[in-house]
Amino acid sequence: MLDYKLLQACAEVIRHASFEKAARELGLTQSAISQRVKLLEDRLGQPLIIRAKPIVATASGKRLLQHYQSVRLLEHDLQDDLPDIPSDGGFGQVALAVNADSFATWFVNVPKCLFDEFGLLVHLSVDDESLNHEALLDGRVLGAISLRPTPMQGCRARPLGKMRYVMVVSPEFQKRYFSAGVTADALRSCPAVNFSHHDELQNQYLKTHFGLNPGDFPAHTVPSSQGFVTVAEQGIAYAVVEIHQANDALRTGRLVQPCDHVIERPLYWHHRTMKSKLLDRVNETILSEARRFLPAIDR
Amino acid sequence: MLDYKLLQACAEVIRHASFEKAARELGLTQSAISQRVKLLEDRLGQPLIIRAKPIVATASGKRLLQHYQSVRLLEHDLQDDLPDIPSDGGFGQVALAVNADSFATWFVNVPKCLFDEFGLLVHLSVDDESLNHEALLDGRVLGAISLRPTPMQGCRARPLGKMRYVMVVSPEFQKRYFSAGVTADALRSCPAVNFSHHDELQNQYLKTHFGLNPGDFPAHTVPSSQGFVTVAEQGIAYAVVEIHQANDALRTGRLVQPCDHVIERPLYWHHRTMKSKLLDRVNETILSEARRFLPAIDR
């Protein structure tokens, strides 16, 4: 059988991409961690970690990390049935990859549900699509939110619902720039707000509805979903945001919708196909939270 | 004299690390952009861009980008004096690097001031310290917020003030976990919340005041300043946050401070030393906003 002490050391180095952080996490010295990884590599007869900056896992290293995460899941189920087995500080752990707009809207109560109901510590990473899929494939996360409808190998993709994006502005901004309505000409001379992962979305919005190409309109850059709403409320840009982010401000009149165009984005929950009570619970929590907020995807 | 059409193409490729985005930004085809970069490289007799994924600038490429940004600054000053020269969509542009906690607190009004007073489109990048310094050195940003007191070559570092970090929890969390006060034992058995760039700060907080090492205490991971306050309000973690982030919630009683310990972090504004009216205005705006919110750094 594998030596799980060694495997744990190796998995934590890969997860943190750092010997130092893995050492801290496990309460060991860096040299102890390093020895364990070396020993495991010797026993398996192949390198598991490429010692570059940043540290990268080899294909074998990634595969081992996956295996390690699966074993942890099974252990968690076991603790459920045999509650006397001690777990880390009394809590289980689950790592999830989320897109920024979900994190800023319907996803907000998921960590609370997982902690309150199942005693889980939640480790979120908020990255772009392709990095989220990579994290799922590598076994660094148990599940990932994504716009892709098709599952990857060994995974399942389940519909979460549609995010709906609308244009919002402050009443003053509307008066100043959109007094004759939202037209291509008006959009050429007032600032939008870009967010790297929003660009594609906003570009499609302005192209589809107004025939504008990127470069045709001026824009600020603010890499934060929350920041988007803030600059719109401050009246220095129009913003294309997920409707839930603007609900409060629309209700109180701090923001208005200067036009009725909507862009929809279907969202999917990707997770490994494996038997685990913990995974089932996480899946149920996320699917039910999504359905509370998001309209269903059209068939 | 340099051909600035070529230089602009090259600078945008470096700034966006993408031929495709540079093409969109300038309203050109990718092949036109690629030809311009190639032509400039031929004329200067050296490579400016390493065509890898992601695209990287060579040392010469970086130096040229710096020069390009300086010329853009000087142009902006010129437009000020000769208002008939057309600029991009009627707006100037300024790129700034910010740390996440500043962005979530005292910095929030800076883009509005720069847009309202000087008609500037503001491009923010929110990254960690070392990446912010790199962006300043490379000329991708005009200035950067940082904890480092010492200026880099060709730059100036000016004190902004102290950020002050305190521990906050929901009243229910306090009752449940800290009924006998905040002690090392209590902290061993209730969740903190980590944010990669916060780790060092929270670790110091828990080490200095409670003798705890990382790994001694359970923690969620939430990579968002806003998310820190949210999970604390939801009562699933205690959080060590910049005091301004929690002010509203402390006032209304959604959060309380379970102990009086404070950690302070002096902040500095780093910018190039060059003569430019635009830069002077940006500096003044940022320094005066910081001083409105942050107490002065002790001498």
From TrEMBL, chains A, B:
Pfam families: HTH_1, LysR_substrate
Recorded GO MF terms: DNA binding; DNA-binding transcription factor activity
Protein name (database record): Transcriptional regulator ArgP
Domain annotation HTH lysR-type: ranges: 2-58
Family under the similarity heading: Belongs to the LysR transcriptional regulatory family.
UniProt keyword list: DNA-binding, Transcription, Transcription regulation
Native organism: Thalassospira lohafexi
